[in-house]
Amino acid sequence: MRVGIVHDSPVPTLSSRQLMLAFMKRGVESVYLRISRLSMVIDEGGAKVIYGSEEGVSTDSLIIRSLGFIATLEQIFRRVDTLKHLELSGTLIINPIDSMLRARDKYASIITLNAVGIKVPATAVVEDVFTAVELCRRWGDVVIKPMMGSMGYGSIKTSDPDIVFTVAKTWLTHGQPIYMQKYVPKPDRDIRVFVVGDEVLGAYYRYAPKGCWKTNIAQGAKAVKIEKIDDELVEMSLKAVKTLKLHYAGIDIGEGEDGYVVFEVNAAPQWSGFMSATGINPAEKIAEYVIKLLKG
Ligand SMILES: Nc1ncnc2c1ncn2[C@@H]1O[C@H](COP(=O)(O)OP(=O)(O)O)[C@@H](O)[C@H]1O
Ligand SMILES: [Mg+2]
Questions:
Q1: Is pLDDT at 139 greater than 90 in this prediction?
Q2: Based on the number of CB atoms within 10 Å of its own CB, is 295 exposed (0-12), middle (13-18) or buried (19 or more)?
């Protein structure tokens, strides 16, 4: 059994190293693979994926921690095609590439969750500046986020239609659609739940810094373990992960006035905040889970 950890950092990231260690402890060989060095080849030897100039990638499973920095549409197609090639040849890809892409596209995942009755914020994606302004007038406080952003960077909150106009106009000039949501009034915290397979590993509150509405650790939020996770939270998190066909995920949940609301589902979540709050290392659980699936 051989497992690959995929990222594009020149040196393995902390979570990649933790995964490799977790596999090593269980007697499973693992390799770190940079996604930009995985290549598809078709020649007289057949169709295969090679790593650098090495022949063939002989891994039973790949855990995709990142698709790397992507500047062009061509790059995303190439990287996705390479992973799909391996997936079609029988490699267990975690998370499945289609599910990963859907989770990365915030609107695609929100619409999928909404379709199965999971509560999400009122959301719109528009390419028309006047629609954006109208929605702000209708919704009051709105949040505008990068469609494929993360860690809270670039998101803004406003109730001023003129700010929406100027932001929308600028983003549209750069070919970026406007992803906007009604602001969900919530306490100064949100909830991050970590799921592996059918199990909720744990959850923690992320307390926003004073005066900040974003609760990302990268924005200075503090992680505090949730000692007793209620059934509704467990059910909602497991349903979200199942609906998006993910093997593991980090789910961001807000405590709205009418109950829990899912902000997003992260298909390759960071876990240092989770580890420091709960003392649980997801790498161990993921390794166990992957080995179990491979043993079938
Ligand atoms: N519509 C919203 N209403 C209230 N708070 C929000 C809303 N959208 C995002 N937030 C806050 O901002 C944080 C980051 O948003 P999120 O959608 O998870 O994007 P990112 O990919 O940047 O983490 C959320 O965890 C939540 O605390
Ligand atoms: Mg988030």
A1: yes
A2: exposed
The three-point CA angle 179-183-189 to 5° equals 115
The CATH number, out of the four listed (1.10.10.1020, 3.40.50.20, 3.30.10.20, 3.90.220.20), of the domain defined by the range 2-94: 3.40.50.20
- Residue 109 CB–ligand 1 contact under 6 Å: no
CATH code given to domain 123-182: 3.30.1490.20
Ligand having the closest approach to the CA of 145: 1
Name the CATH code of domain 186-287 (choices 3.30.470.20, 3.40.50.2300, 3.40.718.10, 3.30.160.270): 3.30.470.20
Domain boundaries, the chain: 2-94, 123-182, 186-287
The protein residues having their C-beta less than 5 angstroms from ligand 2 (an ion) are: 252, 264
pLDDT tens figures, 215-248: 998 889 999 999 999 999 999 999 999 999 999 9
Output the CA 213–ligand 1 centroid distance in Å: 8
To test the pocket of ligand 1, the residue of 150, 186, 214 to mutate (highest count of ligand atoms within 8 Å of its CB) is 214
> Which atom from ligand 1 is nearest to the alpha carbon of 185?
4
